[in-house]
Each structure stands twice: as C-alpha cells, then as structure tokens.
Write a structure and sequence with these properties.
This protein has helices spanning 21-39, 52-59, 80-86, 90-93, 107-120, and strands at 63-67, 75-78, 122-131, 137-149, 155-167, 171-172. By secondary structure, it is an alpha+beta fold.
Length: 175
C-alpha cells in the first residue's frame, strides 16, 4: 500500500494540486470510513458527496485533525477550521508535533486520551484546553478521537474532531 502520509503533504493543503488529488481523496475516505467503523456513526450527519477532500478541508463545520504513528506523533492533517482555531498555516501544522497543541499543564490529560483511543479504538465526550500559535488559550469541546485504521487493518495514526470550541478571552466561538 502507498503511504498516505509523505513529505510532499507539507507543501500544499488538500486538493490544492491535481498531483495530490488521489492521495487527498484516499485520506478523506480513511477519515470517514474509520470513524464510521469504530464509532458506529458518520463523521458528518450525512456523508458529503462530491469532492470529499475539499469538503472535509474547506467546508466542514468542525475542526478536524490527524497525526501519524511516529514515537512523537506529528500532525499530518488539519482542516481550515482547525487551522483558524490554532492559528497555524497548513505548512506549519503538518510539521507540528501533536503534543504541542496542549500546554504543559494539559499534557497528562491529552496523553490519557491518546492512550485510551489506542486501546479502545475511539473515545468521545472529551474536553481539553489547547493553545494557539499566539499563546491564546481555548477549550476544544465535544471531541471524538479515533484510530485511523484502513480496511486492511493498517494503523495510520489517530484523528480528532471537535464540534465546538470556546476562546477563554472572548467567550464562545464555535461554528
């Protein structure tokens, strides 16, 4: 199987190049199918049609992130909503170790979530304090995190969706 995550992914956002379209579509299908398989529910209330990669990246009304399987996992995906919340560009996000999305005080809480997902396939109902590039702090809420496992059983990492968020300095800011 061709790896879904590779170094050229850092150069362009999903769907930005005809060269990456097949890989982007495959990753969008992996996000959707693994979420449905593990949680028993669709990521979207009704699965989007058309250009899945573009719809998840540009049109989704929630933040969507994914990291790889390395010892210190690095983000390999962040949709536009997640980029806006965390204040990182695509190129910055896909080089960021996922642990850096939480402040030092929140690391044990985040690590516990990651461990639980690794063991059980997914976890939902999580709420965690996160930090943006500028240092702004915000809560991600109504979070579901799941293992990215393809139809052949290959583990590609983990993904998380957050359906609302609260900026600590300005009140509610969800989509």
């Amino acid at each position: 199987m061709t790896p879904l995550f590779d170094d050229d992914a850092a150069t362009a956002a999903p769907g930005a190049s005809p060269v990456t379209k097949n890989r982007d579509d495959a990753f969008a299908r992996l996000l959707l199918s693994s979420h449905r398989r593990l949680t028993g529910t669709p990521l979207y209330p009704s699965e989007p049609g058309g250009d899945l990669a573009r719809r998840l990246y540009a049109d989704a009304p929630f933040g969507l992130l994914a990291h790889d399987t390395s010892a210190d996992p690095v983000f390999v995906y962040a949709n536009r909503t997640a980029q806006q919340c965390f204040e990182y560009s695509w190129a910055e996000f896909v080089r960021l170790p996922s642990r850096l999305s939480a402040e030092a005080e929140g690391q044990s809480d985040r690590e516990e979530l990651v461990r639980s997902v690794t063991e059980h396939g997914y976890a939902s109902g999580y709420r965690g304090l996160r930090i943006a590039k500028s240092g702004r702090r915000f809560w991600i809420e109504d979070v579901t995190m799941w293992n990215l496992v393809d139809d052949d059983g290959t583990h590609h990492g983990q993904a998380a969706v957050f359906r609302s968020w609260t900026d600590l300095s300005r009140g509610r800011a969800d989509g």
